[in-house]
Amino acid sequence: MKNTLFLKIFLGYAAVIALLAAAVTLFAPPLMRTLHVDERASGLEHLALLLEGQVLPYMTGPAPGNLEEFVTGIGKKTGVRITVIGADGSVLADSEKEPRDMENHFFRPEIQASLRGETQMSIRPSSTLKADMLYLSIPLRSGGRIVGALRLSVFMREIEVLLDALRSRLLRVAGLVTLVALVLAFFLTRSVTGPVGEVMDATRRVAGGDFDVTVSTHRKGEFRDFALGFNAMTGRLKDMFGETRLQNEEIRHILSSVREGVCVIDKDGRIALCNQSFHRIIGHEAPEGRHFWEVLRSSSAAEAVRKARESGTEAAGEALIGGHAFVVKVAPLAEGRSLVISLQEVA
């Protein structure tokens, strides 16, 4: 029973810990990916807004120098691919490829959104680099009109490598935390089942009649209060049973000193208790447990027992035992279920 209780509680803790660990390992990586992509897209947007004012002069004419050289230099410094697209979708400059080698970008989803005046982020394969890319495109406005789009992009494989490293660390941390949690659950379960098992053992001993048993009061909190209450209860039970034994001994001494034959019958008519005089009169060594009519064969006595049981008052009859006449008196006890029968010899 003690081991069964331990296993039930410990396995319950273990199941909860396993479910939490599984939930973390299943749902945390996708959430981390979403958050990291959103953070990276936000960083690209901030960079694009900073570059917007520097790219427009190249497109409108007043800026000296070459736009291609400018975006290539920024791309190398930031590690971000930068593409400038005109209003007709033609590539004006790119930090990774020659614009003349690149196809028209007018129908790319992020470019379409920017030419409508929107900022859009998308993740899709690059038709030129043949790899998944994170794209962030913003519109380029000049004089109240959209003159093109500025698109920044990074390889998704860089993000996935970082996420794989984070996922690996997460799994190691989750495994370590799960192990520590299981160890803690083991000791917590023992701290609960130990006192409970001790009380269960003590309860079985009390049920077997051992009232000297006590449980440890060295623990703290509710277990200590329970142990004090349990020990007080067993102490009280010991006193009560001691008092009951003394009372039974006194009753037996009193009955043994009575010259009349006295017995007590239960609700089923069986003899529960009798004195030595009753033994002597009926000439039977062990009448206890037998029906009174088996040892006291008298219709008058049986009638007196019936009247006393039905009326709840004293009744009397006669019996002839061993050639001697006896007056049979029957009186109900206080609880009304047992009867006291006395046999008094007629002189």
Can you walk me through this structure?
With 347 residues, this protein is of the alpha+beta class. The chain contains eight helices and ten strands. The chain is rod-shaped and about 150 Å long. The model has no long low-confidence stretch (mean pLDDT 84). It has a five-stranded antiparallel beta sheet. Strands 7-6-10-9-8 form a five-stranded antiparallel beta sheet. It has helices at residues 2-60, 67-78, 109-115, 156-207, 222-257, 276-282, 292-295, 299-311; strands spanning 81-86, 91-94, 120-125, 132-142, 145-155, 261-265, 271-274, 315-321, 324-332, 339-345. Helix 1 (2-60) packs antiparallel against helix 4. The protein folds into two domains: 2-161, Beta-Lactamase (2-Layer Sandwich), CATH 3.30.450; 254-345, PAS domain (Beta-Lactamase, 2-Layer Sandwich).
Question: Looking across the biggest beta sheet, what order are the strands in?
Answer: 2-1-5-4-3
CATH superfamily of the largest domain: PAS domain
Q: How much β-strand is present in the residues?
A: 15-25%
Radius of gyration, in angstroms, nearest whole number: 50 Å
Cα distance spanning the termini? 65 Å
Calculate the mean pLDDT score and round it: 84
Poorly predicted parts: none
CATH architecture tag of the largest domain? 2-Layer Sandwich
Helix content: 40-55%
Number of domains: 2
Largest sheet: 5 strands, antiparallel
Question: What series of H and E elements makes up the topology?
Answer: HHEEHEEEHHEEHHHEEE
Task: Give a quick rundown of the structure.
By secondary structure, the chain is an alpha+beta fold.
Q: Secondary-structure map with pairings?
A:
Blueprint: H1 2-60, H2 67-78, E1 81-86, E2 91-94, H3 109-115, E3 120-125, E4 132-142, E5 145-155, H4 156-207, H5 222-257, E6 261-265, E7 271-274, H6 276-282, H7 292-295, H8 299-311, E8 315-321, E9 324-332, E10 339-345
Antiparallel strand pairs: 1-2, 1-5, 3-4, 4-5, 6-7, 6-10, 8-9, 9-10
Helix pairs in contact: 1-4
